[in-house]
Amino acid sequence: MDEKLIKKEPLGKDFFVYVSPHHTFGTDAVLLADFSLARKKDTLVDLGTGCGIIPLLMLRDGNLQTAVGVDISHEAAALAKRTSLELKLDNFTVLNSDLNELKGKICFGCHSLVTCNPPYKAPNGGLKNPDGIRATARHEVDCTLRDIISVSARLLQTSGRLCICHRPERLAELMDIMREYKLEPKRLRLVCQRKGEEPWLVLIEGKKCANTGLRISPTLYVEEDGGFSPEMIEIYGAYKEAYL
């Protein structure tokens, strides 16, 4: 990895994250971290952690007992490990692994929270980027949506939560697979760029072995009156001056 291409992005509260052109983060990851409602006692596994932004935002806010970030990319794992080491986060571990090969590397059935900001495009969903790293991030090349949900179900303890974001056009498929693996959809939120537009993102929480009953939260609007909405500014919180 070319050291000149690595940047340190501030996250506020003396936190930061190392990013590269291949492994940075966007609004969807920030919204997922907020939607997940992490608690101090939570033990998190973040699948496809990239630069580690989701665990880092949760840890920045004083949440999580432990966090494990998993990514198949050596470059991504190296960035997340570097951030963890420099911030001296003893409770944030990074695994460079295929999520389908986690057996023996991590405890199954004992985590309270799994998060994932997955590749949004199905294997046959349009032209793939010739850059292999970007193709992995955007298409289901190395893992499918079913892989993500089945592994999440095995990682979680009973009543543990999977929080995931995806494109609205795949919501029916997402919910079907979640229920197949006994991750009952319990909470859902749509995200629109502005009022009057169709949603571009869906945030959903499934709870392992839970009863039926889905709560739909008010729609989140990213923009309002030509700028960011008050809720978006609140979500970006301590580092809003750098990103809004």
Please describe what this structure looks like.
With 244 residues, this protein is α/β, with parallel strands linked by helices. The chain has helices at residues 27-35, 53-60, 74-87, 132-138, 145-155, 171-180, 230-236, 240-243; strands spanning 7-12, 15-19, 43-47, 66-71, 92-96, 111-116, 156-166, 183-192, 201-208, 215-216, 220-221, 223-224, 227-228. The chain contains eight helices and 13 strands. The strands form three sheets. Strands 3, 4, 5, 6, 7, 8, 9, 10 and 11 form a nine-stranded mixed β-sheet that branches. Strand 1 (7-12) and strand 2 (15-19) form a beta hairpin. Helix 1 (27-35) packs across helix 2 (53-60). The protein is globular. Residues 131-139 have low confidence and may be disordered.
Mean pLDDT: 91
The radius of gyration is 17 Å
Separate helix tally? 8
Molecular shape: globular
Helix content: 25-40%
Secondary-structure class:
alpha/beta
Largest sheet geometry: 9 strands, mixed
SSE run: EEHEHEHEEHHEHEEEEEEHH
Estimate what percentage of residues fall within beta strands: 25-35%
How far apart are the termini? 29 Å
In the predicted model, the low-confidence regions spanning at least 5 consecutive residues are 131-139
- Give the number of DSSP strands: 13
